[in-house]
Amino acid sequence: MNFKERLLTQPVMILIILSMIAAFYVTLPLPLVDAETPADKALPDDFPGIEAKWGVKVVGLKLSGGGFMVDFRYRVTDVEKARQLFDRKVKPYLIDQTTGTKLLVPNAPKLGALRQMPKNPVANKNYFVLFANPGQIVKAGNKVTVVIGDFRAENLVVE
To answer: Where exactly are the structural domains of the chain?
Structure first.
């Protein structure tokens, strides 16, 4: 094998490609942070009520997957109160308050539902639920309601 052939071996090619990708991301501008917008703008107005009743704290609600998914994140503060959110029989959904559209959790044949459903949830751990957003109906800034069984988090603002 001559020098040229050794240079173009698979591991070297992978390293070259990864270096090119890293160089691309280094040159991207950093996103601007709006100083007037609080970091917890996705939190509902009655946040203490949700945490007291359901044992969860809403961490965030963001568009993901190029805008085709809505990522709902929450932290469990009381495992017993939050247990219903992890029931496999309960089907979570998200309601866009502008259009009334109901978004569901995708259920891939090999992966299953795109949400975390541990048998034994852990306190002070973050969990997620991904909602499909076909046609990018929900946009950043929209107000939505997340429903998981009897749990309702209303007036969440999508980031």
So the answer is: 1-30, 47-157
